[in-house]
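Teaching soon. Invent one.


***
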Amino acid sequence: MKTKPRAQLGSSLILALFVMSLVASACASMMFYFSLEVKRAQVVNRNIDMMLLARGSLAWAVDELNTHLKNKKPNQLLDKMPLVSVAEMEDGVTITSTLEDAQQYFNINALTESKLLPNFAHLIMLSIPDIKSEQAMQLATAVRQWITPEAQNPTQDYFYANLKEGLRVPAAPMAHISELRMVQGFNAKMFNALLPNLIALPNDAKLNINTAQPLVLSSLDESLTPSLIKKIVTLRATNPFLSTDKFTGLDEIKNTGKNLGEKITVNSDFFLLKTDVATLQTHMILYTLLHRSLKNNQPLTVVIWQSKGAI
């Protein structure tokens, strides 16, 4: 019986070892990608689980809003905001729900009314002290041109068209306040400074003076001093305004000589729900904009949008 030369046996052994190393490498790669897919599936499943947990928060908010409207009584404040609910569940899950008035913020879409441009310009200067009145009015005008068909400007259209992104002016109300970052003249620093006081609602949603942020209250008119704003905030904490006349009837407001009543309301239709879901492994914040109305004489609250992680 013939035997293979020793050199040939050595070559065969080397080839076998090489093949085995290739197989081992392929198996290792497959195991690595398999572990990634498992982790990805776990993340997806956790997100799904957290979204399902957040449904309880939404159900709570809708029930609260509908109950308030259903039980509305004369000479009483309809909604006392904010409302907070904390639910501790099994397996270390905690759901914190915060329901607040969305009309406490300056409604960016109200700028379809040109008479509100000075108000927004004033808010810009209050939020960003480095900005002077002329630049603030230019920024306010740029926003109005972004959201209003009849306010279009060919020069502005040219500016957006020549951007790297090739934007087109929508000439429609903002669906989300994040659109402000795309408006000519605004940068990230300005946006972040204004964000705590802004929201995008239908253009007829007025400012609720019972919940309005102090800086937003100040934007109603330049004559409203910090001391007057502090007085209003203190007064409404114990004696909320049950009508706009109660507010405009204040001596300091009457002395402004301005018709502030057309810019304000004492009852809101839009609300912002913040749902914070925390588990042992992860954490999620979900924002939900809600609209409440009467339909067939029955309260109806619906979701306008939801945003995970940021307003």
About this structure: The radius of gyration is 29 Å. The mean pLDDT is 87. The first helix runs from residue 6 to 70.
